[in-house]
Design brief:
Elements: H1 3-24, H2 27-41, H3 54-76, E1 77-87, H4 89-93, E2 99-111, E3 116-127, E4 130-142, E5 147-156, E6 160-168, E7 173-182, E8 188-197, E9 203-207
Antiparallel strand pairs: 1-2, 2-3, 3-4, 4-5, 5-6, 6-7, 7-8, 8-9
Helix pairs in contact: 2-3
Length: 208
């Protein structure tokens, strides 16, 4: 056996001996190891004066595991929402007010694969004296680290199918281009928008 390989094996064995000594010399760590093994020691359990019994250690470990499971779930399921105000400068100059309408949307996205996600959402929109709502299903595919493509279908007062592509222009700015077709009359709409993130919880949107 080469001397370099023997040195690696000796180093690993020495580390194991040090870990074993640390566990055996600490009463609380030894209790955790006896009940749950190394997994219990590496789970993030905070050792304190209240954890003097096996039952208390078990309860604390289960609490930490439940928290980790919730964090995993949160990483795969992401709820979001938005409020958009439609403003019209020509309408404002004519003296009719600048507000044309408002839209409220929300969705829940879940990751189904490394590059794919499905989102289910709904929206309500008011424009002038009319309004409507729709339920939407979107399939998202991440093409690269800066671009993605979406296929969507919507049912409600506006039944649509569409395709949309997005690209990150910078760390806080995203450009989006989409095309949709109405299932009611076959009309086609092309849209362009740019979104800029102002903070962790808010962003601005310009749509053409």
């Amino acid at each position: 056996m080469p001397s370099s390989q023997m040195k690696v094996i000796a180093t690993e064995n020495f580390q194991r001996i040090c870990e074993a000594y640390e566990i055996l010399s600490d009463v609380k760590k030894r209790q955790i190891y006896d009940i749950y093994g190394m997994e219990g020691l590496t789970s993030g359990l905070e050792l304190g004066p209240k954890l003097n019994k096996a039952e208390e250690i078990k309860e604390e470990l289960e609490r930490l595991w439940r928290r980790k499971e919730q964090e995993k779930l949160s990483a795969h399921v992401r709820p979001s929402g938005s409020i958009l105000a439609h403003l019209s400068l020509p309408q404002f100059l004519d003296g009719d007010g600048i507000m044309r309408g408002m839209a409220v949307a929300s969705e829940v996205q879940t990751q189904i694969a490394k590059w794919n996600a499905i989102a289910i959402g709904g929206n309500l929109e008011v424009a002038g004296n009319s309004g409507g709502g729709a339920a939407t299903v979107v399939f998202r595919h991440q093409i690269s680290s800066v671009s993605s493509i979406e296929f969507m279908a919507s049912a409600g007062l506006r039944a649509l199918v569409g395709l949309q592509t997005s690209r990150h222009l910078s760390l806080h700015s995203t450009a989006t281009m989409g095309i949709t077709m109405s299932l009611r009359d076959g009309s086609i709409n092309i849209s362009n928008s740019q979104t800029r993130q102002h903070s962790e919880t808010s962003n601005g949107n310009i749509r053409l």
